[in-house]
Design a protein that fits this description.
Largest interface: A-B, 23 and 29 residues
Oligomer: heterodimer
Structural class of chain A: mainly alpha
Radius of gyration of chain A: 24 Å
Number of strands of chain A: 2
Helix content of chain A: over 70%
Strand order of the largest sheet of chain A: 1-2
Helix content of chain B: 25-40%
Distance between the termini of chain B: 41 Å
Shape of chain B: globular
Number of strands of chain B: 10
Largest sheet of chain B: 6 strands, mixed
Strand content of chain B: 15-25%
């Protein structure tokens, strides 16, 4: 008997395509880095102005592991710097998420909060978080607090806006169905509106975690004497562009990892949502 | 005492943007007896869904009284199970959790909830799919979950708003047969809104023909053809002819009036 669907998983050609498929996402970064390395070595620009990727990797390696002290005082201190930034991000982001979700759900759900609270918040929203830096320094001094305050400002509004949107766009019929099954006002909020708004709330959280990294680094460049942003700015004064780039890469990497973590939590929480792309189901 | 009593129901929607009022339901009087399967039959826009929403408590009549089991309807409640036109399930809950949602709201523990919901999952033929989410099931299956969810509350009446309108012809026939079987087995009162004469004749033992806007009751016809009903039998066709002539009279009257 011949089978039409003969899919033997051990076929070598099949395995090879799978391996190649994993590699396709590396093509663009690999080309970029190779081009950059070639350009840096061509001598069009002095090496101090545009360090080659290899030099940046060297600086990053020493910053992390401290093997030859090319990064001088930072040598081997990467973990300490990254942790300092990450804690500020986490502190401000956690605070912003908590208050943003609470205020957003309240405004989306209750006419009273919408009328009293929302106009004030919407007026504060267009003020760039960075413009709070002078006040933040006067109020909180030079330490973790002004950074956390700035991160909070940057992360709060995306969470707030998306929570409001999520609650306001809950399918009206789901609320009717809940009322039909005898839900109290409180149950309506906790058992229907909140879960229905979760996809939107998560979208806000993901935007917020990006803002949080941006503002941590900004705060560290101005108001704090530690963290990745501080190293970046300090190296700029000493014309160490290899360290500047190593710091930028570190920030990008940590921001990416934070988003990945958030995405993993989201995937677990929103398992009921079938995530699809335009071309088909995500694997 | 009838299960549902509608007394002089009037519903006016005020169209604020155009500054005029729209009379949707004009003096509806109707008694629905316990264990009746009543079909509200009428063209789109005749106010049949509005009437159902008033019984459900989703909307308030402008004037008139709505009584279910002798009690005035003021708000939605679990004494009236509603099956919506779209399944309207909680997308984050599995089939069994959707069916048992009413029990969860009442604070009943998970084991007992699932125990009791399983009976209704079986009743609508979804055993094996109880842990599927709505996005993983077809429209027909989701509508079955919606029916099971309404039945589980053991309501005195079940209100259905064109629940099979979005289904394909074959699934629709299956669902109609199953609904009749469930109604015969469980002896409940059903009010079923539809615009299809065939559907009304397959399902109902009382067919309430409504007129086009403003909605009035043209006639309430008792229809006791034995079940299962053969939709090709002469008796079925006689009844269909009669209902169609009621509808046609209405449209000629409207045409002459205008």
């Amino acid at each position: 008997m011949t089978s039409v669907t003969d899919v033997s998983p051990a076929r070598p050609a099949f395995r090879l395509t799978r391996a190649l498929q994993g590699l396709e996402r590396l093509i663009v970064p690999a080309l970029l880095i190779a081009g950059w390395e070639a350009f840096a070595r061509s001598g069009v620009l002095p090496p101090a102005l545009l360090p080659a990727p290899s030099a940046v990797l060297h600086a990053l390696g020493d910053w992390v592991f401290g093997f030859d002290e090319t990064t001088q005082t930072y040598s081997g201190h990467w973990l300490r710097d990254a942790l300092a930034s990450a804690l500020r991000v986490f502190g401000g982001f956690a605070l912003a998420s908590l208050l943003g979700i609470l205020a957003g759900v309240a405004i989306g759900w209750s006419r009273l909060f919408e009328k009293t609270l929302e106009p004030t918040l919407q007026m504060l929203r267009p003020i760039p978080p960075v413009s709070w830096i002078p006040l933040a320094i006067i109020w909180f001094g030079i330490a973790d607090k002004p950074a956390i305050f700035l991160v909070f400002l940057g992360a709060f509004f995306p969470v707030l806006m998306n929570a409001i949107h999520g609650v306001k766009t809950v399918d009206h019929n789901l609320v009717r169905a809940g009322a039909m099954m005898g839900a109290s006002q409180r149950q309506m909020l906790t058992d229907i509106v909140l879960p229905a708004a979760l996809p939107s709330i998560f979208a806000g959280l993901r935007i917020a975690v990006g803002s949080a990294w941006m503002l941590t680094v900004t705060a560290e460049m101005v108001a704090v004497k530690s963290g990745l942003g501080y190293v970046l700015w300090d190296s700029y004064y000493f014309l160490r562009y290899d360290i500047v780039l190593a710091a930028m890469i570190s920030i990008g990497l940590l921001g990416y990892l934070s988003d990945l973590g958030l995405k993993a939590i989201m995937a677990r929480t929103l398992r009921w949502q079938q995530t699809t792309t335009v071309q088909g189901r995500a694997g | 005492m009838a299960a549902i009593e509608l007394r002089n129901i009037v519903k006016v929607f005020s169209d604020k943007r155009r500054g005029r009022d729209l009379l949707t339901l004009d003096n509806i009087n109707l008694d629905i007896e316990a264990n009746d399967f009543v079909c509200l039959l009428g063209p789109s826009g005749c106010g049949k869904s509005t009437l159902l929403n008033i019984i459900a408590g989703f909307e308030q009549a402008t004037s008139g009284r709505t009584l279910v089991d002798g009690k005035q309807v003021e708000r939605p409640g679990s004494d009236r199970g509603v099956v919506f036109q779209q399944p309207t399930l909680m997308p984050w809950l599995t089939a069994i959790d959707n069916v048992a949602f009413h029990l969860k709201l009442k604070g009943i523990g998970k084991a007992e909830r699932h125990d009791r919901a399983m009976e209704f999952i079986d009743l609508v033929g979804l055993r094996g799919f109880e842990h599927h989410h709505p996005s993983e099931m077809s429209g027909g299956m989701n509508q079955r979950v919606g029916i099971a969810r309404a039945l589980l509350m053991n309501p005195s009446v079940i209100l259905m708003d064109e629940p099979f309108a979005a289904l394909d012809a074959q699934t629709k026939l299956e669902m109609q047969e199953e609904l009749v079987a469930i109604w015969q087995k469980r002896r409940c009162t059903i009010v079923f809104v539809t615009h299809s004469v065939d559907e009304a004749l397959v399902l109902g033992n009382k067919i309430v023909v409504m007129t086009k806007r403003p909605g009035r009751i043209r006639e309430a016809v008792n229809f006791d053809l034995p079940r299962p009903r053969d939709i090709t039998s002469p008796e079925f066709n006689d009844a269909k002819r009669r209902i169609l002539s009621l509808i046609r009279e209405e449209s000629t009257r409207l045409a002459q009036a205008s």
